[in-house]
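Practice problem 4.
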């Protein structure tokens, strides 16, 4: 598996570099074009989102070659090396069926990309993408749906989006990529299992069944712990940003705008996305430290929490059961 990770990363990033290099040749010298191609290919596959252009990729919002290449690199890096390896083995005929993990990842990735793009287009059709050609508007919608999950590139000004679109991006950033990938967030599998738990409880079913398989109860408990712990961290860091802001004398309407900006900034840090409503340079030292902690916790926190459940647990006392009213 380690060998596969190294080989695949080298192959995918090399191919991405070549495609972007050939495209950038039309605008830059060969040396500069190669450097830009290499940098953006590595940044995209590793779901980093750093760009050497001051406006990220806004100048290329209608360029199908650059957009498709970057989107494909982001998706390949975001589905995880385990899924990539299983797909490779299945293509070569060495594996008959994909694991439940891979099926959930591929299904949820497709749903989130398509759903995110659809809602983005509907929310912005009369706003940000109003004056764009239809093809460019669709391309922008799909690009932002993909990049919001973990990457951080942008082809539109994030601060100019509607509140509905910002909420959509916050949800996508919180979900993030898939386990064993280069992205952050609570992961697509956790979100899928949460939705299935809710659906099964509404139907009166105790177990969660997917693709003719039953998910162990321990996994479901771990999923709930990861999601709610992550949400709690987002709440705490957002509160820190609000309490330590330098604009305490602002009227309530402007303070509410800060709340949206700080919440977006916090979730973006948690998902290691990198998108911002241009509020990052305005943060003071305390707020910057809080965002740094959020980025670190968002990257290693869910993984550490998940592995902690594998450690030896002491068996406590079992008392008589008594019902509690909920809901």
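Answer key:
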């Amino acid at each position: 598996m380690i060998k596969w990770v190294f080989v695949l990363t080298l192959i995918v990033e090399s191919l991405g570099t070549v495609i972007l290099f050939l495209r950038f040749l039309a605008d830059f010298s060969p040396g500069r074009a190669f450097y830009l191609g290499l940098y953006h290919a590595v940044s995209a596959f590793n779901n980093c989102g750093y760009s050497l252009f001051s406006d990220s990729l806004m100048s290329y919002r209608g360029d199908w070659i650059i957009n498709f290449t970057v989107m494909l690199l982001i998706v390949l890096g975001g589905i995880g090396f385990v899924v990539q390896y299983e797909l490779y083995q299945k293509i070569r005929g060495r594996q008959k069926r994909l694991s439940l993990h891979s099926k959930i990842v591929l299904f949820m990735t497709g749903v989130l990309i398509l759903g995110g793009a659809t809602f983005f287009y509907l929310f912005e059709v009369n706003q940000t993408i109003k004056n764009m050609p239809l093809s460019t508007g669709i391309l922008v919608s799909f690009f932002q749906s993909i990049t919001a999950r973990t990457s951080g590139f942008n082809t539109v000004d994030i601060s100019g989006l509607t509140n509905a679109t910002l909420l959509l991006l916050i949800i996508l950033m919180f979900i993030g990529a898939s386990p064993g990938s280069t992205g952050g967030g609570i992961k697509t599998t956790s979100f899928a299992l949460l939705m299935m738990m809710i659906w099964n409880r509404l139907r009166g079913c105790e177990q969660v069944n997917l693709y003719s398989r039953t998910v162990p109860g321990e996994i479901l408990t771990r999923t709930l712990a990861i999601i709610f712990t992550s949400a709690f961290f987002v709440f705490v860091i957002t509160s820190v940003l609000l309490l330590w802001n330098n604009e305490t004398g602002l009227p309530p309407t402007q303070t509410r705008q800060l709340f949206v900006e700080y919440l977006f900034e916090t979730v973006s840090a948690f998902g290691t996305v990198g998108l911002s409503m241009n509020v990052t340079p305005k943060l003071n030292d305390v707020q910057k430290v809080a965002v740094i902690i959020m980025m670190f916790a968002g990257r290693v926190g869910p993984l550490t929490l998940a592995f902690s459940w594998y450690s030896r647990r002491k068996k406590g006392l079992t008392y008589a059961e008594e019902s509690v009213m909920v809901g």
